[in-house]
Structure formats: C-alpha cells, structure tokens
Amino acid sequence: xxxxxxxxxxxxxxxxxxxxxxxxxxxxxxxxxxxxxxxxxxxxxxxxxxxxxxxxxxxxxxxxxxxxxxxxxxxxxxxxxxxxxxxxxxxxxxxxxxxxxxxxxxxxxxxxxxxxxxxxxxxxxxxxxxxxxxxxxxxxxxxxxxxxxxxxxxxxxxxxxxxxxxxxxxxxxxxxxxxxxxxxxxxxxxxxxxxxxxxxxxxxxxxxxxxxxxxxxxxxxxxxxxxxxxxxxxxxxxxxxxxxxxxxxxxxxx
Length: 254
Prior knowledge:
This protein is mostly helical. 79% of the residues lie in helices and 0% in strands. It holds the Pfam family Sds3.
C-alpha cells in the first residue's frame, strides 16, 4: 500500500550503541551520588542497607520540651517583646517622664508639691514634739533644783535655830550664874564689909569664870558659827544694797 519512496516513519529506535552509552552514564551518575552522601544520614541504597525488611526507618519522634526550657523560652520571648516595645516607644516614654519631672519641679518651686508638703509637715511635727519635750525637761530640772534648795534651806534653818537655842541657853545660864553670884555678894556685903582688895579679887574671879565658860570648846564653836553666819548675812545684805543702788543709778536718767 505504501511505497518505500514515501516519508520515513515518525518513531525510530536509536542505535544499540547509543543505548549502552546512556546506561553507562546513568550508572556512573548513581555511583557518584552515592559517594557524595553523608555517612551519618543513613540514606544508603535500599538494596545495600535494608536487605531484610526492605523498608526505611520511621522518622524520629519529636523531643518533648521540659518545663524549665519552656519557661526560659517564654521569658526570652517576653524580654525580646519588652525590648521591642521600648525601642518603639522610647521617645514617648522620654517625653512623658520629662513632663512629669517638670511638673514636680514647678510644684516644688510654688510650694504645692505633695511629697514636699508631707515631709515639711513631718519635720514640723517632730520640731513641736522636741520643743515640748525640752520644756518638760526644763520644768523637771527647775522643780528638782527648787526642791533640793528648799530641802537644804530647811535643813540649814533647823540647824541654825538649834544652834541659836543652844547659845541662848548657854547665855541664860551664864546670866543666871552671874545674877546668883551678884546676889550672894550683895548679901555678904550687908553682913561684912570687905576691904577693897578682896572686892577687886572677887570681881576678877567672877570675870575669869565667865571667860572660862565662854572659852569652853562647845560654847566657843557655837559662838564662832553664829558670828560667821551673822557676818555672812550682813555681807550679803550689803552686797544686795550695793547692787540695788547700782541698778537704780543706771536706770536714773541724767
């Protein structure tokens, strides 16, 4: 039906030598890819690595994350988010903080700062408490000194009264003895008139006896105390009068 001179067939087989060459190239390519793979990837050809089961291993199960690692990861993510927010809003935060500080400074300058007023009120309260405590301490010290002075004054006054009484008793005793002696002498003179030298001798004895009584240690000591006390009182009065006159002269206009 079709003659040999017609068009050649559409599908023609390649020559045998060409097929053999193609197979050799494929084998060389497979061998090259085999040696290029990692020895730790366990991806060897099936016929060499799985001779028994003829199937590959199943992929490894995912490792469960521990609680500490999970917490650490969450904290790292949170810190990174905070850093990102701060970097995005740092200018706004700076402006707000600067505005707040300027407002506080203005309030302090005008005397209307709340914290400043609270601190001043606390210091004022402490000041009042300190002044009150100092007043109470001063009142206590003054009352203690007054009480001590009154006790010493009463003690000295009682001792002075006792010494005055003893001196008065001694003087009364001496006066009574003198009176008795004078009476005896007067009665004796009525009965017997003595010569002048005996009368002088008797008077001398009486004076000597009186001097002996006055020079006795108890009476002498009491008299010295009384005399020093009287001199002190007089000197104190004289000094007081001098000071009063001096102040009066200063106050008196020229």
